[in-house]
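During the no-cost extension, the postdoctoral fellow (Dr. R.K.) reprocessed legacy sequence entries with the updated structure-token encoder. One reprocessed record is reproduced below for audit purposes.
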Amino acid sequence: MLSQRQRLLIAATLVAAPLFWWGLGSPEDSDSQVSSTSVEQVDFFIRSAEITRWKNDGNVGQILTTPLMQHYPDRAAMILETPLTRVPAAADREYLLSADEGTLPDSQEQILLAGNVQLHDNPATGLPGLVTTDQLTLYPPRDYAHTDQPVLIKRGQDTTSAIGMDLYFDQQRIDLLSDVKGEYHVQ
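Re-encoded structure tokens follow.
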């Protein structure tokens, strides 16, 4: 029979071998692995967010809704999931602007929209219009939006394509920047 001291020595040997194999004997290696795989942190999030921007005259400037808004302090920005922005243009008109994702910097001077960006124009009279692009920067305080990406505008059967666009919501005006091509159907 083995004495209690011999059993304790055998158990310690059996436990020590796997510990050294797992690297618990060298803490420098495990510390370097933890720091090299650091993950960007979210300091807060908001579900079902609705943000209303008011103009100086007290009228609604824009209403931004998103199912999920996450703030990343290292980026100094909020990441928006499928944002939808309603922009009132006149008493009878409202633009709807949607995208797959958005970025709202802490300065809140602009909103960067990316992925399947769509601007819906549904006037009280006339045909509805749709403007699509891959990326758009919205400047809420200036009622202005800009892109350097390809743009496609559809209204009924008519289409216009261009590279780059400046959009002035308050003036209800679109300036196409280059390579403008159109196809129009007479009715």
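The chain has two helices and eleven strands. The mean pLDDT is 84. The remaining legacy entries will be reprocessed before the final report is submitted.
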